[in-house]
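Work Package 3 (structural annotation) set out to generate three-dimensional models for the target panel prioritized at the project kickoff. During this period the team completed the workflow that converts sequence records into C-alpha cells, so that structures can be stored uniformly alongside our sequence database. As a representative example, we reproduce one entry of 206 residues exactly as it appears in the project archive.
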Amino acid sequence: MRRVQIVGHQRSGSHYLGALIEQNLFDSTDYVRHMSRTGHPTPKQVNLSDLSTLFIFTHRNFEDTLKSLHKIKDRFKLVGSFEDFKEKKIGELLYIKIPWKSEVEVNWIFNPKQQLDNQSSYFSSYTDMTFREWHEKVSSEWLAETGRDNVMGLRYEAFSLKDDLEYKKYAMLIISEYLWDNKAWKPESFKDITERVGYYKQGLAW
C-alpha cells in the first residue's frame, strides 16, 4: 500500500476528504490512521518525486474560504468584520504579531504542539498579503503540480453533502487505484460522511 498526504489551504475540506478515504477505502472511522497529519506545506517543502506518496491537494473558492475563516476567526486569533477580511493585510488582522519571518508551514507539520499554542503563526509569513493574495499563492503553487502522476487536485465544492455523489465515488476510485494497484474498490459500496469532522468534532483532529 502506498502513502497518502492530504495538503491544501486552511478551510479547504482536507479533514473531510480524509474521513471519506478512511471510511470507504479502509472501513475505518479513525480518519487520520492511514494518512500523514494534514498540513499546509508548499510544494517546495515536500518531496514530490517520492512516487510512494500520493499528494491530494484540496482547494476551495476564495469567497467561501474567507467566509469559513471569518466564522471561526477566534481560532486563528484574527479580528475584524468580514469586509475587513476582504480589504486588509493579514498582518493587520492578527491578534499576535509574529516577530520572525520564516516558512512556518514546516512547523505546522512537524511541531503541532507549538501550533496549538499559537495557531495564527501559520499566517505569519504572509502578513503583507491580503487573504485573496494568500489564497491565490497557496492554490496556484499546488495546482501547478497537479500534472504529476502522484499529485491530484480535488475541489471542496464537490464534497459538499448536498452535491451529487458521483464525483466523490470517482475520486475514491482513482485514489484506491493509486494506493492498491490492482485491488478493486467498488463505487456501489460508497459511504458518505454524515457528521462534521476536523475542528468541529475533535479540535484540530491530529
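DSSP finds nine helices and three strands in the chain.
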